[in-house]
Amino acid sequence: EVRIPRQVAMASATAFSPAPLAYLSLIVILLSLSSSSLSLSAHQDLAAPPVTLYNSLGRSGLVLRPAPVMTLRGGAEVEGEPVRDEVPQEPIPPDPTKVYVGNLPQKVADDALKEFLSAAGEIVQLEVKRYKSTGFCKGYAMATFASEEEASTAVKTLAGGSFANRSVLVKPDAGYDPELAEKRKKIREEKSQSGEPRKGRPMGHPRFWPRCPQGRRVYVGNIKFGTSWQQVRDVMAGAGQVEFGRILKTATTMHDGSIRHVSKGFAIVHYADEESARKAVETLDGTMLNGRGLRIKPDMGRGAGMQGKGPAPAGAEGGDAPLEQAMENLDVGAAN
Known about the structure:
This protein has eight helices and 17 strands. It is an alpha+beta fold.
């Protein structure tokens, strides 16, 4: 680290061009003429990376520090380039003891997530995927359990559960297919180059909804205000494997001017298969929850009835909008 007295640096700034080469020439002159005013490291390596000049002046003068050097794949060192993750080149088979956990918030705490997953068994390893530049979570994590049975229990009991004010995805590990990954990468690049707008919300966004065929979606209405998504999820799990879902909310201005996210009185539930969805409609309709009988119907999605051009689709009864319209009305902070 090299420090140049403030008076010398300010006087030089008015006499020389601010271009990087002019600054470096100035440094050489100052080092030769004002060596007594400089504080140099006694162990400075002659082969050290070049210094970077910062334009701002501190109270003690101008401070020069080594430029950051990042290592890329293959061992190449490039200044200022980000460190990139190693991408597997060979297929990786699924691990029956590992599960995928999705729709996590950006600032998820590892300890909190581990505590949530530990309800299914012992966690051997938890890897939360994060961006290196910010440290924020990418929206998902991989958790390894002590046994296959515990991993299977996690998928059955925690999928669609409430964590950090949102519904989370919990699925068995699918392994890694480099060919499939390359195809998906090309599709993303083509869409990006064409300017095609992205459909839906990215993983980890509070308004994220995973893709789900219509036959596996169920509408749950007449939910009492104050009922939590976890309570609804536990009731609906009586018909089969719940994968995802939540109570939909809307931003409402209260009498004091504050804004609250109020339940719309209904939820959308995603099942793992169509048989479970049919069973939920047949056996759980009318189930009492917090003093109210739940109205359970197949979710028909957004239909012509919303534009007044035909009969209202199932799920729109009583003024409740189906999934797609409700998603448009959601506020960012109203995940659950």
